[in-house]
Amino acid sequence: MLKLEGVAAGYGTSQVLFGMDFTIGQGEVISLIGRNGMGKTTTVRTLMGMLPARSGSISLLGKPITNLPPYRIARMGVGLVPEGRRAFASLNVEENLVATARLAGAKSNPWTVDRVYSLFPRLQERRKQSARTLSGGEQQMLVVGRALLTNPQLLVLDEATEGLAPLIRQEIWQCLRVLRDSGLSILLIDKNLAEMTTLVQRHHIVEKGRVVWVGSPDELNGDPALRDRYLGI
Ligand SMILES: Nc1ncnc2c1ncn2[C@@H]1O[C@H](COP(=O)(O)OP(=O)(O)OP(=O)(O)O)[C@@H](O)[C@H]1O
What we know:
The chain has helices at residues 40-47, 70-75, 93-100, 113-119, 121-125, 136-148, 166-181, 193-196, 217-221, 224-230; strands at residues 2-11, 14-24, 29-33, 55-60, 63-64, 78-81, 154-158, 185-189, 202-207, 210-215. By secondary structure, it is of the alpha/beta class. Helix 3 (93-100) runs parallel beside helix 6.
């Protein structure tokens, strides 16, 4: 589904990624975890075409996407829920959803606004409300719904639950489980390891711009020294 090989990238003279390598199989949910500033968001920006890869290669469903413009990568099937909630504040809920909706060719059971409402009933209740009046959790549901309406093959969530109350986080996790069970591939960047345990197949620890450890949530849970060394917990 997605493959990064030896990807290097950075900002100006500062290099941040030093050979990022990982793959996501069809229908898999994987994570990038690690301390702040290790290059997780930079990896997302590079794979989305928002930051140039200086070397290495990225492919999606077997096709090279390295350094394609972001709109083409999005159209090829990558839906992004970026860091920081970015709903269109001046639009209401339904307008936000309709703004990015795109019918997915021959895909069976494509995402529609109604299907998003059945995943997030609160959004339906608030459909005429302007996005700026929503709670943080509702805004995040809106941004996830918007990404789904691009009918992605791969959903990328960068700190989607950051700053949300535990109960709302649980709701988002539950929705991600539903999406996983529907066969969607998901790349998660998050800090809530305990909550990711039943969602993620493989964790990837990122340290100084590369993946230094890959393993299952159980392996990570059973290795306090590893968590202490790379995650500081
Ligand atoms: N726009 C930018 N210009 C210059 N340097 C940047 C920029 N964005 C990020 N960096 C630097 O790149 C490094 C990696 O940042 P990145 O955001 O990828 O880390 P991260 O692992 O996602 O951590 P966090 O959880 O803090 O977002 C950091 O040292 C950061 O200061």
